[in-house]
Each structure stands twice: as structure tokens, then as C-alpha cells.
From TrEMBL:
Ranges in a coiled coil: none
Protein name: Uncharacterized conserved protein YbjT, contains NAD(P)-binding and DUF2867 domains
Taxonomy of the source species: Bacteria, Bacillati, Actinomycetota, Actinomycetes, Micrococcales
Domain of life: Bacteria
Organism: Paramicrobacterium humi
Pfam families attached to this UniProt entry: NAD_binding_10
Alphabetized UniProt keyword annotations: NADP
Amino acid sequence: MPEILVTGGTGRLGVPTVDALRRAGHAVRVLSRRPGAGRALGDLVSGVGVPEALEGVDTVLHLATSGLSRDEETSALLFRAAERAGIRHLIYLSIVGVDRIPMPYYRTKLAVERMLEDSPLPHTILRATQFHELVTGLFTVQRRLPVLFVPRIGFQSISTLDVAARLTELAASDAAGRVPDIGGPERLSAAEYARRWRRASGSRGRVVTFRLPGKLYRALRERRNMVPGPPYGTRTYEDYLAERYGAVSPG
């Protein structure tokens, strides 16, 4: 049975994606620099082990990211190796708004998208909104402050479980190019996210909103990080908070 290779399979999204793929009956191996059950040793920086990891693989889910410009180099290495290996389908996860929000990391993600589109690889590109964990990180770094500073922007955060479910659907399908973006079930202001996090975490910090100038914040205020139309995700931010912190108290 052909296997699926997942890069970034030990990360925040990779773990639930690997679990979802296996529950769906797929044979999965995870590209990793460290040995372990279900792993194939390989390094996307040096390229060592990557051709061997692709042997017998039919589909690749490329979820690995460093958050730095090196992503272009590692993705190019993977794409070349996948082409040589005759991979039938390569799936790449990107972010909603990479072509409309002026952030360095987003420019890198867009460059990888275009690199894949220009390659001969049969591929699918899926863009998702920010994960619930990312939004939460904006607040947890301030947990010891008496005030919770929040920019006047909004999010449509999505559960990694919902993204994993969509990736599993795509892995069972043929290459489709760019597929519709997916977002979470709610579009909320950052201040409302902060208030919900505050209740769930027990933080006493007072929520204070502020406005910032510049193209980046204008793009976020214009909701370029959100998906118009019906949402794909079903797990709300409060569902995530309840799992992370326990039951969310009302008020």
C-alpha cells in the first residue's frame, strides 16, 4: 500500500493530522531528524535522507515550517526530491491572506506557493486562517501584566483538528491546484478573543485596545486574514479554551 509522508508531522498541526490520516486507514510516515516509531529519518535543510524517505510514497503533506526565509530553500529541496521520486500528489498548507497581508513570513509562504505552482508536481494548495493557539499566544505572553494590550483587529481562528480533517480529505483526492480557503466558525474582534481567554485562564488583566498605523494593520483591519462565506471549521475558540483550561465560566 502506498504511504503518505508528512513533513512537520511532530508539530502543532502535524500531530493531529497524522492521527486523522491513520484513523482514516492511511499508512503514514513522518519525516523527522530524530528516530522513532512511524518516522523516516531525513533533514530538509541538508537533504540527507529525504530521497530514502520518499521511497514507496504516493502522497506528501508538506506542513513543516521554520517561520523563517529558510522555508523557501527547504521546500525547493523537497519539491525537487518529490519530482524525482514521481510523487503523485503533494499537498501544501499555506495561510489565508499571504498575497494580501504585507508580512515577511507571509511573503515566504507565497513564494513557496508559486514555486510549487511553477513545478511539474501534481499538487494541492490549501490556505487556512490562524490557529486558535496562535491567537492565544498573543495573550499568554502578557499573562503577568496588569493590562492586556490588544490591537483593534479581528481573527477567524480555526482548530488544528478541523484543518487536519480537511487535509485528510485532500489526501484521499487527486491533485486540485489551489482549493478554497478555510476558516474557523467565528469572526471576532481581538478584544473579544482576549475577554474569552481572560475568563478561561483566570487572568485579571484589564483588556485595553489600541490602534496601530501602517499597511500591515490596515490589511488586518480590512479582514484580509479572514474567509468570506460559510466557515469550514466547527470547533470554536471557546471549545479550544475549554479543552486547554477547563470549563469556561460565563460572564
